Fold these 2 entries.
Entry 1:
Amino acid sequence: MSAPASRQDSLAALREPRPWDVLIIGGGASGLGAAVDSAARGYRTLLVEAHDFASGTSMCSTKLIHGGVRYLRRGDIGMVRHALRERALLLGNAPHLVHPLAFVIPAWNVVDHLMYTGGLKLYDLLAGRNNLDASCSLNRQEVIAALPGLKSTGLSGGVRYWDGQFDDARLAITLMRTAADLGATCLNYLPAIRLLKTNDRVTGAILRDTETGEELEVTARAIINATGVHADSIRQFDEVKAPPLLTPSQGIHLVVDAEFLPGQQALMIPKTEDGRVMFAIPWQGKVLLGTTDTPRPELTQLNDPQPLEEEIDFLLRTAAAVLTRPPTRADIRSAFAGLRPLIHPGNADEKNTATLSREHAIMVSTSGLITLAGGKWTTYRLMAEQVVDRAIDVASLSRAPCPTQTLKLHGYPGERSSDAYGTDGLQLAALPGHDKLLHPDLPYTEAMVRFAIRNEAARTIEDLLARRTRALFHDAAAAEASIEQVAGILVEELHPSPAQVTSIIKTARETARRFRLNA
């Protein structure tokens, strides 16, 4: 496989007068998925992202590829069925990034035990031949054995079921690499600052390179707005008075040490005070606690939402109710928040975003701007297929079938693998620093940093510690301690000016403090 194009070469392609078939604005899950789909069909595809790939909502998920057990309770059968099918496809196409994970739902009375057992049998039925394994009822002792650290007083039993777990930002980077392998041009730090129109039709965009300030004019036959929670901002470039489409909802997660819930099975609490479920999930040697659902309509312009005090207290309080050793604020290794781009129906209750659908929608403005809104990581491929199908119709592109149901993603190893780099692992092992950790408390090496800069479009220390590795999510204090070391490698690889280095380090320290509650 050929080496990825350099940033300079990619920018040079934008200066050519030749129009693109498809321009995608937004480098999160939906935009990157659309870039893979478009390029796989043979269209000349350009994706631009204002910040870094997956730097918003797409890096702050609960790290699950799942049908959504809680949606059964709301009767969203169709969404669950579609998600379960997509779960199976992703497990097959990216076995180095998505893995089966067992979940246990404890029950403290017989009625709940029977209800959970019946609900999970429906989940099995909806999955059909794509089911990972049959759910099963557990007695009290089996639940205690599966979830060391769970309070057992009054425990009746429970249910075990299976879903998928993944690393969200690593999957995003893999999608970017896959799109590039297929011929797409993908650039981060290149926001669209204005849309171009000809005869009242959207025909392109003005892009700005945030590293140099250069503005580039590009034209395209189809333009897709896949900017997640910022979709309304792009829509208002097209129509100044376009009414808001989205109701942002914030979800936060806390990362604590594995000793609070030892073992390799996840805990799902189906009833919490805010109407959501809560998960405690083993993830990369830690335990991930989440999530919340807090309406944040004022945050549509914010790129770095922060956990609210009441959200942190809620998760700690919920965990304390079920764990024998409840974590405290002092035990939190990392805390992060993301915004869900929920579609806002006209009669929605903005005080309860937990009731809004996670379904996606595709809209086309009178000028031809195509907006993909809503959705979730699990269904990114289906969303991409549908939005590219719509782009074909809107722009009268030559029709080509969608091949992504069986398309293997970059690094595909041929079988299930614990190495997220897949076939790139050999290349990684040959780089300097492959045996030198960034920090004793982090599972990441200097070679991973070099690889990310050379092959994965990493431009800043935050890119490296938040998205190419997951250091800031794993242990924010350890990540902060490694900033100077990472900066040294970045200087060797990218040769920024002293002033740029100072700015990059300053920004990285500010970011690390946002992940640290105990700084």
Entry 2:
Amino acid sequence: MNTSATANSPEKPLPSDTFLNVAAYKFASLGGLEDLRGELRTRCLDLDLKGTILLSPEGINLFLAGVPTSVDDFLDYLTTMPEFLDLEVKRSYSDKLPFRRMLVRLKKEIIPCGAASIRPQDTTSPKLGARELKQWLDEGRDIRLLDVRNNYEFELGTFRGAEQLDLRHFREFGQAIERIPENEKQQPVVMFCTGGIRCEKAGPLMEQAGFEHVYQLDGGILKYFEECGGEHYEGDCFVFDGRVAVDSHLQPTGNLLCFACQAVLTADDVASGKFLFGQYCPRCYQEPRQRRKAEYLQRQQRIRTLADAQPGCQPYDNVRKIHVPGRFAGHTLIDFLSAWLPNVSRGQWLQWLEQELITGTRVGRPDQVVREGECFIQHMPDTVEPMINPNIELLHEDSGLVVVNKPAPLPCHPSGRFNRNSLVSILAGAYPNEKLRVAHRLDALATGLVVLCRKYQAARYVQPQFAEQQVHKGYLARVQGHPDWQQTTCNAAISAEAQGAAGRRRVTDDGQSATTHFRVVRRFDDQTALLQAIPQTGRTHQIRLHLAHLGHAICGDDLYATDAPPSVGGATATESEDAVSAELCLHARQLSLIHPEPEQSVTYVAPLPEWARR
């Protein structure tokens, strides 16, 4: 352990409120990391130290601060371990603790470089002492100074005449040196970094790339400041703690670090109108409109990437919860399951029960009587979902709502054969720390506007507007035939329950009341027509069923068309359609609601689909 006084150490006793900051690393083959982690963390907490210790199979890297006697006690304890006997420590002092907590972390590498073959515990480049480098610089030797740090560190300060490789991260170093011409690899190179640890890996990488004479500054910039001061160095040195940067006397400069872009900030930067702590600084500031546009483009790209991956099309083990509604209380389990999902045969349910793929809090026997609220678990190994149309378009987002233009086929919620290939599941990946709640329903085969709420409070405000029919909705539909009316209203009641395996609703006198207003927009030469549909109620399949009832089924709707006519373009669509090209010509074009923040009316409009433009 290095405890000797340095050229910049104060000669008088340190005041009692001064904290000692130490940085050290050692490449060594380590084992028993979990136990070592516990020992070091306990010792640091007992000594009231703050900072970070990184442990990996290749060694240790630490940054600690605390009362000097406590730091020395810890270093004395650490250097009793055979692996750390010759640990070299860099010291500086500050009147404030630069760390807020104590972390001991396990890592694959203490400094990642992207090259597993590099093992500094076995071999490194020759080390050049700080005083020797100063002598070389005083003499004007013909050497190449190479700063292996990242861009923001280089900009804050470096040795006079030093070069840098435009690095955003040290992992890029190996590729960067490969781009250096061969005829520049004969000149002696002295590389340096903050404390020396990156040079331990940079040197062997350079030698592998063909550099003939490579030296590393022993102890890095901090050791140079400690032994030689600031001669030949311009600016300050970035450090990885709350001090942000230190000068050549190893004293904090008072600079801040931008949380967003990691730029080092001066007092003038902080005082400017383009600084907001934790969000942006003059280096990364964007006008509000530019920032919203950039965020929108990033989010849209993320959504498309997730959807293009067709996440449900790779085999996986799916698990689905089945809750027993009150109307099925008292039924046998097999009767409940057959009625709950009628498109699955009774024989299939019996087979799954026999294979114990239906489980619950009680034994899943076909003849057992179910209770209201009881939950069963359906296990579906090697699930592969049908493909979807991935062209989800983000139309609007704010702090309360997200509005998308949904393509088809794509279900809004996990249901039936779809789980991961659903709108909610895909958007969950694009909004990873949020739970988006769909405010209304839209058929899997319909396209157009879907509103999702980003907060629980927004959902409580918006969802009742849909439930209480306070939202004005406008749809477009392309239908078979030319209506003999220009506008009409359909009041046919719709059954509350689905019929048959296809989940078909029907018009019935004792059904739920339903009202839809229709207006002809255009009649086409191919004996189809474009209609505007304005539903006053929100029954399942309402527009599709009303149009079929009026004798003008939607193009591509073979669920309600009596003669299953072709869709525009020749494809037909069913609720179980696998083909992404399936096309139901029903589009949620426009809706108006009261936004929760502020409480004002807003209107959203979706782009026209191709079949409406033709």
